[in-house]
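Pasting as-is:
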Amino acid sequence: MSDKAPTALDLPPVDPLPEATQKYFDLCKEKIGFVPNVLRSYAHNIDKLNAFTAMYNDLMLGDSGLSKLEREMIAVVVSSVNKCFYCLTAHGAAVRQLSGNPELGEMLVMNYRVAPLSPREKAMLEFAELMTEASHRIEESDRQKLRDAGFTDADIWDIAAVAGFFNMSNRISSATDKRPNSEYHSMYR
């Protein structure tokens, strides 16, 4: 794989990119300084890119009883269980940014149980881990633990949706050897 390729697959981007896609990529460059390789990897098929970004933006940026940091924490813990290099690097940086705490980002990447978590955060991450490792074992008592920690049923849906999305994304990233942009490694430290 070349240093510039976002994955190990030979999937050249649509050229030229549609105007709306180019504007989105330009906005990424303006806001964070680069186009994330996850977006570049989908640029071979604009319909798939649009579906991915719509789902991501809804889950991670849309209205929710979960904070943006909590959603990123779920992304990191799921990615840690799945050992997804791309998502651990990218979303570990997001946790560092949103929390203002580089150590928290590293703890969640390596072992969330060593992090100083609130009971709410711990319950949320335990559920995301269970969903990742053995979703078929989830019972009402597992959902009740989330309710007891202060989550509504709508929040439980969002926890499950974020965890499910990152389980899918982790598997695609690992299967295609998606590489994180090098900039992520030094961000927010």
